[in-house]
Amino acid sequence: MSYPEDYATAAEQELTSVLQSLRQFPRSHESDLLTEHEQGIGHFASIHENAEDRFVPVVSFISHGLERDEQILCLTTDELRENLLTAMRAGGIDVDIALDSGSLSVEPISEISSEETPGETTVPVKRLEQITEDTETDEEVRLITQMSAVCSDDPNRDDIVDYEHQLTHACKELDAISLCLYDRTQFPSALLRDVIRLHPYLLTDTTASQNIYFAPPDDLIGLGQPERHVQRMLDTVQTLTGTKTTLMKKEEALQQTDEQLRLALEAGDLGIWELDLQSETAPVRSLRHDQIFGYDNPPDDWGFEHFLEHVHPSDHERVKRSFDAALESGNWSFECRIVRVDGAERWVAVDGEIYYDREGTPIKAIGVIKDITERKDLERELRTEKEHFRLALENSPFTAFRLDTDLRYTWIGSPHDDFDPEGIIGKRDDELLPPGAAETVMEPKRRVLETGEGVREELTYELPSGTVSYDLTVEPLHDESGEIIGLTCAALDITERKQHQRELEDTISQLEETNQRLEQFAYAASHDLQEPLRMVSSYLRLIEQRYADAFDKDGEEFLSYAINGADRMREMIEGLLAYSRVETEGEPLEPVDLETVFENACEDVQVQIEESNAEIQKEHLPCVEGDASQLRQLYQNLLSNAIKYSGDEPPQIHVGAERRDDWWQISVADEGVGIDPDEHEYIFEIFNRLHTREEHPGSGIGLALCQRIIERHGGELWVKSEPGLGSTFSFTLPTSE
Predict the structure, then answer these.
(1) Residue 39, by phi and psi: left (phi above 0), alpha (psi -120 to 50) or beta?
(2) Domain contains 571
(3) Which of 27, 68, 98, 675 could form a disulfide with 104 if both were Cys (CB 3.0 to 4.6 A apart)?
(4) Tens digit of pLDDT for each residue in 322-370?
C-alpha cells in the first residue's frame, strides 16, 4: 500500500517534531509549565471525551491561577456554568470568596455576545482584551474557554485556525494564559488534529506537557484518516507525558542521590578523581583532591606522572607496582606518603576501580583519596604505647589480664619467662584452680560485675604446691554506652613478702618481749640499787661530818670523790628509772594544751632562768594528743639544755610551732655554743655526753629520755646545729583533731 506524497511529508514532519521534543526533555510538572507564559508562551488546550473528565484539568488550571493571584475568566454555556462551579467546589476552591473578590468570573457566552454576531469565535479574544484593559493592577489574566460555546454547530476549520492564531498572539501581547476546552464528541477529528497542533501545551488530567505536535497555523496539513490520526496523536502525547514524568522523577532522585553523595564525600573529607588510562591524564577531579596535595588553584596538567612526582621516594616503586596489579585485578587500593607543594609530608589512602571496554582493555579509573595523616600518627603513637606497655609489663612483677562477663580469660600478660597463656585463654578460674582456691579468686571478680565498682584485695589460698598470696586489683571494663563488657585485672605475687612479714612480726614480737623484760630488769635494778646507794651516801656524809678533822688533805679529797660519785650514781639511777618508766608508767594519750604544759615546765627551771637572765620568746602553742606529764619533762630538759649551753651571753631562746598535715612540728631554738653535725645522732644515745662534768654537770640521759618520750607519741626528734651558731631541737606530735 502506498501513501500520498503530501501525507508522507506530514508524517515526516510529525516524526521530526517528536524527535526534537525528546531531545529537549521538556518539563512535565504542571507548576513549571504553567509559568511559561512569562516567556510569552501561554496557550493551552484540553480535549476530553466524556462529561466526567472535562472539568478535571479545568479545576487544576483555575486553582493554580488563584494561588498566583491571577484574574480568572471562564467563558462557558448557561448549561455548563453550574456544573463547572460545582466541580470547582469539589476540587477545594472557595468559589464564593473568589467570585465576591472579583478574582474569578464565570460568564456564559450568551451574555457577552452581540445579538448581531452570535457564536462568533473572536468573542473570547475581545473579552480577554477588555478584561485586561479594565484590570488596574499588574495581575495577570487566565482565560478558560469552552469552545463548544463559541463555535457554531458546524465550525469552520479556517475560523478555528484563525481564532487560535489570534488567541496565541493575544496571550503573548497581553501576558495572559489561555486554556481552550474541546469536546471530542462535538468536533470532527480532522479539526481536532489541527487543534492539537495549534497549541504549544496540552493538559491531560492534571498534568501539563509540551505538545510535540505543535506547529504554526500556516504549516498545518490535514491529510490522512482524521479519526485515527487524532487518536494516535492523543495517545502519543499521553504516553510521552507519562514517560517524561517518570524521567523527571528519576532525574530528581538522581540529583538527590548526587547531593547525598556530595555531602557524604565532604563529611568524609574525600577527594574524587577520574584517570583516563589511555592518556594517563586526570582532568576530572574535585577541589578537595587538589587541596590534599597543597594546591589552592587546580593544576592544568594533572595526570598519573604528576601524581607520582608527589609520591614519597620511599613509596614510589610500591605505588607503581600496585597500579600494575590493579590493571589486572580491577581494584586499586593503597596507602602511601606524599610530598605536598609546600614540602610537607602527608599520608593518603587511595581507593579506586578500573573500568574496561568490551575487548577487556582498561580505559579509565575512578576513585577517591583521603588524607589519613592523623590516623597514621595515632597508629604510630598506639604502637609506641603498646611497645612501652609490653616492656613495662615484662619488667613489672605484675600479671595483667582481662576477663569477659563470664569470667573467662581473654588476654593475659605475665613477667614470668615460663608462662604459657595458651593454656589459660578461654578458661575460668574454676577450670584452672582447686575448688577452694577458685572460689577465693572469683568472689571479688563477681562482686565487681554486680556493683560496677573496682576492688583491691589481698587473697591467700592453698595450692598443691603450698600457700600463696596475691595482691589483686579488679576494675570494670565499659563499652561506649557505659555497659560492663568485662574486667581488667592486675595481680602481684606477694607470697614471699607475706612470709617475710610474718617473720618480721615474729621478730618484733620477740623484741617487744625482750624489751619488756629489759625494762622490767632496769626498773627493778635501779629501784633495788637506790637503797644501798642511799646507805652509802648517808654514811659517807656522816663520816664527813664527824671525822672531817681527822683526815689529812688526801683523805679529804678521797672522801669528796666518794661523795660526788655516790651523788652521780643516784642521778644516773633516777634517770634510768625515768627512762624505763616512759612506756610502763606513762598516762594514756589525750588532748593536751601545750601552752599549759610549757608554763609548768618554765616553773620547773625558773631558778635557772633567773640566774642566767634567760630571755624566752614563745609563739602560740597548739593542742596535741599526748601525755602531759611526759611532755612537761620533755620541755624541761630542752629548756635546761638551752640555758646550760648558752655560752657566755644570757640565753636567747625561741619556741615555735608549725602545722604539717596531721602533725604539729614544735621547735626549741637557742643561740648557744652549738653542736658539731657529726655528733647529732650521738647525743641522743643514753649516757653520752659532749662535755666534761666540770664544764657542764649532768647525767647524759636527758636527750635520750626526750627521744624516748617522742617515740612513744609516734613522732620524731632531731637537731639542726653548727658550732657557735646555736641549736634548734625539733619534734613532731599528733594533732588532737
Answers:
(1) alpha
(2) no
(3) 98
(4) 999 999 999 999 999 999 999 999 999 999 999 998 888 999 998 889 9
> Is residue 139 in a domain?
yes
pLDDT at position 23, please? 36
487 and 512 co-located in one domain: no
Cβ atoms within 10 A of the Cβ of 81, count? 17
Contact 626, 588 (CB under 8 A): no
Do 415 and 393 contact (CB within 8 A), yes or no?
A: yes
Look at residues 377, 411, 441 and tell me which one is the last residue of a structural domain.
Answer: 377
Instruction: Please give the residue range of the domain that contains residue 531.
Output: 504-566
How many Å apart are CA 246 and CA 224, to the nearest integer? 32
Do residues 425 and 528 share a domain? no
Count of CB atoms within 10 A of residue 223's CB? 17
Residues 314 and 237 in one domain: no
Same domain, 515 and 546: yes
Could you read off the pLDDT of 604-641 as tens digits, one per residue?
889 889 889 999 999 999 999 998 888 998 898 899 88
| Cross-sheet strand order for the sheet of 652-660 | 615-618, 652-660, 663-670, 727-734, 717-721
Tell me what the mean pLDDT of segment 149-154 comes to.
70
> Residue 451 is part of a domain; what is its CATH number?
3.30.450.20
C-alpha 67/C-alpha 44 separation (Å) is 18
Q: How many domains, in total, are found in the chain?
A: 5
Tell me the pLDDT band of 251, cut-offs 50, 70 and 90.
Answer: low
562 belongs to a structural domain: yes
Question: Would you place residue 587 in the very low, low, confident or very high pLDDT band (cuts 50, 70, 90)?
Answer: confident
Same domain assignment for residues 279 and 151: no
Higher per-residue confidence, 543 vs 228: 543
Q: What is the CATH number of the domain that holds 98?
A: 3.40.50
Query: Sign of dihedral through CA atoms 317, 320, 324, 325?
Result: positive
Q: How confident is the model at residue 118 (pLDDT cuts 50, 70, 90)?
A: very low
Task: Please report whether residue 261 resides in a domain.
Answer: no
Give per-residue burial for 56-79: e unless 16+ CB within 10 Å, then b.
Answer: bbbbbbbbbbbeeebbbbbbbeee
**Following DSSP, what letter does each residue of 146-211 receive, concatenated?**
EHHHHS-SS--HHHHHHHHHHHHHHHHHHTEEEEEEEETTTS-HHHHHHHHHH-SEEEETTEEEE-
